Amino acid sequence: MALSQWIVLALKLSIFLLVFALGLQTNIRNIGHLLARPGKFLRSVLAMNVLMPLFAVALAAAAPLSYAVKVMLVAVALAPMPPALPRKESKAGGEESYAIGLLFTAACLSIVTIPLAMEVLERAFRAPLSMAPGKVAQIILTTTFAPLGAGLAVRAIAPRFAGRISEPVARVAGVTLPLAALALLFGFRHAIVAEFSFNGVGAITAFVLFGLGVGHVLGGDNPADRTVLALSTATRHPGMALAIASGNFPQKRDFIAALFLYLVVSALLSMAYLAVRRMRAARETDAAAA
User: Fold this and answer.
1) Degrees to nearest 5, angle at CA 248 with 242 and 250
2) Contact in structure between 249 and 72 (CB atoms under 8 Å)
3) CA-to-CA distance for 277 and 267, rounded, in angstroms?
4) Where in the chain are the domains?
5) Which of 54, 160, 161, 204 lies 20 to 30 Å from 119, alpha-carbon distance?
6) Torsion angles phi and psi, residue 178, rounded to 5
7) What is the CATH code of the structural domain delimited by 3-277?
8) What are phi and psi of 130, to 5 degrees?
9) What are the backbone angles phi and psi of residue 35, rounded to the nearest 5°?
10) Phi and psi at residue 112, to the nearest 5°
């Protein structure tokens, strides 16, 4: 098996375990959280499924970027939020029910929004693009619905057992993911260096900052909701983005390197955003106590 295949397998395993661990710790009520709140639902869709893709297309059309970075930006903007994000958002002070509800809703919507967006882009740029709903559903099923459903089932049948194994499962997934990232860095190091440029990194930085800003503003008055939507808008599903890019441009492999640069920049800026949010929350707590 080639190195790239091992990397993809490790990524899939890590994502499956992360979502399974999430299912072990949540309940069915959290999944429908967003559907019961129309205002929050519409703001979330506007940030993730409308404004972010529009910004990515405008950035790709206007900025002097490599072809790989342009493809990556649009593919990432169309992808739903990553399944691992709700755990990070909850630990950062975000509302768990909103984070999990947003994950489920974004996954469901992507089955419709991704093929529709590909059709719009195909007509706008007169380029042969496609992403069948069945293909999107297959990815969502294997990375989100199946492991989440399995975790929920175990929690419903054996809640104590689910509580005992959730953290060990999450730790195993947490080790697998960085190992896969290191393997990706090693396997595509030359392409990554070739794609590293001021314009490329600058565009990716602008893309992530725009996502954080839009999500923060549209998150509403609740600080926890702002944190959840900001991270969910700026951070997207790398597996889905890779499927969109490779499915439409199979002869172009450099977007894997561009995707790695996005993951690094997104991680750094998200950590900085979370640090600022934590400091502000601490100041507000101290002020209230005083």
Assistant:
1) 75
2) no
3) 15
4) 3-277
5) 204
6) -65, -30
7) 1.20.1530.20
8) -160, 150
9) -65, -25
10) -100, -45
**What percentage of the chain carries pLDDT values higher than 70?**
79
**Helix (H) or strand (E) segment spanning residue 102:** helix 96-125
Structure-token pair, residue 85:
């994000």
CA–CA gap between residue 253 and residue 59 (Å, rounded): 21
Give per-residue pLDDT as tens, 192-226: 666 677 788 889 999 999 999 999 999 888 888 88
Dist. CA 212–CA 230, nearest whole Å: 4
Please state, in angstroms and rounded to a whole number, the distance separating the CA atoms of residues 130 and 254.
Answer: 20
Answer whether 101's CB lies under 8 Å from 144's CB.
no
What distance in Å separates the CA atoms of residue 171 and residue 84, rounded to the nearest whole number? 12
Question: Residue with structure tokens 């890019």?
Answer: 245
Average pLDDT estimate for 24-45: 83
- Dist. CA 248–CA 128, nearest whole Å: 8
Contact predicate 277/227, CB 8 Å: yes
The confidence band for 252, taking pLDDT boundaries of 50, 70 and 90, is low
Structure tokens at 49: 């499924």
In the structure encoding, which two tokens stand for residue 28, read together?
A: 């069915």
* Interacting residues of 249 by C-beta distance below 8 A, sequence separation 6+: 71, 255
